[in-house]
């Protein structure tokens, strides 16, 4: 028994440090042991180390040994999601909710699981249950994990997101002790430490890379603290070359990451993940740097009292929203999301994409979980008014795609008017987007990188203005791009705007002043929009860092930093 306890303790330590392959090596020789914990740890470690199919057996065995093991159901759901068995994953999440009806985590995963497979029969019931349990949960609950990202994709109140984020952060950062305080002092060079798992062929790296290349190298030294894969991609090589060093912290737990950041003398620590998959933002709970910032990764508050600022702009983070942030709002004078003006688009012919040349192609490159029934109602209304149009949707897997076709049929739209695009590499995805005529945004969670990708491909994006960060990203990008007319106030106006834009294409062969691109079988390479100005963005970001640092040096607490202030 003591040997088993030691084995489990050692495995849990490896898992806590993100060393899942090492945990597998410890546990797999004992795979026949009838221990619920051992089987669950083994299943999770197999899943997280990339052996997803192999994880199913141990997780099922863990449940056979303890039928009400909530954590085993969760791990099984995550494995099934990875295997594109999202309907089965949703059933696991529903079981978790049945076992833990008073848990924000359980109800959030239930709602999110249904969204991922476009199962809307319980949409309203899921929301009512989720909102009720959030309201009932004490603000100081210390044993609750809330899944803030699941809340972002469904209708919610800003105060509820703050509450869920605080609950989650308190749970995730438990046991992390603060390091001895370090004082900010005036210095000629500031060291910025960016923390993320996405410094490879990933959207975050693609957004940031040119800004890092354009930075003031005399005043700012940049370190990347990476806990993600080494994929050897050209983008990874480029973002590493843009910085002084890339430090691999993948084998460290949050406390270890914090210690490494402190040893490297980081002045301003910037987390790029927040409450998203693979995050280790809780490393900042140890206070490794005098100034700590959240930017780019999570569209909302982290609910962390150890993060001083959240970087946004006057659209996504108006100062009037300050009560809904644990951080102080720091505004850039332009859209908070950077871009890469060196990106080049080589449009993929429609014939290679299974798209008819004569059709009006309405693009939805957002993930299925962002599609709510009201969004889909608007899209189907558009298809009713535009019989020559089709919806080109990013595939959510065979099950979700089939459900969306069924939902279309129930609204009187032929299922074959939905065409699904499979996942492809980043560059191929950018190139194929240029085949679309108009992009349809989602709400309450907009397309974020999805919106800037469409604009970079020369495709106009129509959005609905909402409340909260996640509901205003597309508006921020469109305003920056000089296309405010594509931001609508109601679903009815959204439908009308799309229809008018498409009719404009049919009448003139162009989308007019809004985007200035020609629609024809011979599609020219769209110009990268002029709104991407990385040198100016770098100066604005650096000026914001300087303002944060000046307050810290003066011994002043963080405060809101409005654009132009």
In short:
Helix 16 links the parallel strand 9 (389-394) and strand 10 (418-421). The protein has 3 domains: 1-83, Tetratricopeptide repeat domain (Serine Threonine Protein Phosphatase 5, Tetratricopeptide repeat); 190-341 and 536-553, Rossmann fold (3-Layer(aba) Sandwich), CATH 3.40.50.11380; 350-514, Rossmann fold.
- Trace the largest sheet across and list its strands: 3-2-1-4-5-6-7
Largest sheet: 7 strands, parallel
Question: Tell me, what is the CATH class of the largest domain?
Answer: Alpha Beta
Number of helices: 21
Helix percent reads 40-55%
* Rg over alpha carbons: 24 Å
Unreliable residue runs: 510-528
- CATH architecture annotation name of the largest domain: 3-Layer(aba) Sandwich
Overall shape: it is globular
The tally of beta strands, per DSSP, is: 13
Proportion of residues in β-strands: 5-15%
Textual characterization of the structure:
It is a single chain. By secondary structure, the protein is of the alpha/beta class. Helix 2 (20-27) runs antiparallel to helix 3 (36-48), helix 3 (36-48) packs parallel to helix 5 and helix 4 packs antiparallel against helix 5 (70-82). It contains 21 helices and 13 strands. Strands 3-2-1-4-5-6-7 form a seven-stranded parallel β-sheet, with helices on one face. The chain has a six-stranded parallel β-sheet with strand order 10-9-8-11-12-13, with helices on both faces. Mean pLDDT is 94; it is low at 510-528. The chain folds into three domains: 1-83, Alpha Horseshoe (Serine Threonine Protein Phosphatase 5, Tetratricopeptide repeat); 190-341 and 536-553, 3-Layer(aba) Sandwich (Rossmann fold); 350-514, Glycogen Phosphorylase B (Rossmann fold, 3-Layer(aba) Sandwich). The radius of gyration is 24 Å and the shape is globular.
